[in-house]
From TrEMBL:
<comment type="function">
    <text>Specifically methylates the pseudouridine at position 1915 (m3Psi1915) in 23S rRNA.</text>
</comment>
<feature type="binding site">
    <location>
        <begin position="127"/>
        <end position="132"/>
    </location>
    <ligand>
        <name>S-adenosyl-L-methionine</name>
    </ligand>
</feature>
<dbReference type="Pfam" id="PF02590">
    <property type="entry name" value="SPOUT_MTase"/>
</dbReference>
<dbReference type="GO" id="GO:0005737">
    <property type="term" value="C:cytoplasm"/>
</dbReference>
<comment type="subunit">
    <text>Homodimer.</text>
</comment>
<keyword id="KW-0963">Cytoplasm</keyword>
<feature type="binding site">
    <location>
        <position position="76"/>
    </location>
    <ligand>
        <name>S-adenosyl-L-methionine</name>
    </ligand>
</feature>
<protein>
    <recommendedName>
        <fullName>Ribosomal RNA large subunit methyltransferase H</fullName>
        <ecNumber>2.1.1.177</ecNumber>
    </recommendedName>
</protein>
<keyword id="KW-0698">rRNA processing</keyword>
<dbReference type="GO" id="GO:0070038">
    <property type="term" value="F:rRNA (pseudouridine-N3-)-methyltransferase activity"/>
</dbReference>
<comment type="similarity">
    <text>Belongs to the RNA methyltransferase RlmH family.</text>
</comment>
<keyword id="KW-0489">Methyltransferase</keyword>
<dbReference type="InterPro" id="IPR029026">
    <property type="entry name" value="tRNA_m1G_MTases_N"/>
</dbReference>
<keyword id="KW-0808">Transferase</keyword>
<dbReference type="InterPro" id="IPR003742">
    <property type="entry name" value="RlmH-like"/>
</dbReference>
<feature type="binding site">
    <location>
        <position position="108"/>
    </location>
    <ligand>
        <name>S-adenosyl-L-methionine</name>
    </ligand>
</feature>
<keyword id="KW-0949">S-adenosyl-L-methionine</keyword>
Amino acid sequence: MNITLITVGKIKEKYLKLAIDEYSKRLTRYCKLNIVELADEKTPDNASEKEEIAIKEKEGEQILKHIKDNMYVIALDLKGKQITSEELATMIDDLGVRGNSNIAFVIGGSLGIAESVLKRANYKLCFSKMTFPHQLFRVMLLEQIYRAYRINSGEPYHK
């Protein structure tokens, strides 16, 4: 199974980089992980709605360049469906069984994900109605992917 994280924004904090590295290392026994880190567009203070849409679309163009035709795309979106860790594990397992061995998770920038990317997505996933910094969210997503593989392997993992 190939898992790709396509993310907007750079990780600057050392403690987050260490956590990402740790989960990336743990995942090597379950899947091939690729993290694509894209630069975020600068948002001016008091940006208009039109400016924000243009910024998201510019980021979206960069995201779409990294999505291959054979990828099953899961966009992280506040309007997406909330599921449990067990349901995520089942989804990942089912995708593999059905021959979808290339899964891409997309984390947008601070303004969210462009409509063009949401249209390409096969599934829209919401972790919570709360807002999280996308740098921290990357760690949370990797942890949930790791948890999913542990669940699917019947290995212990705290609930």
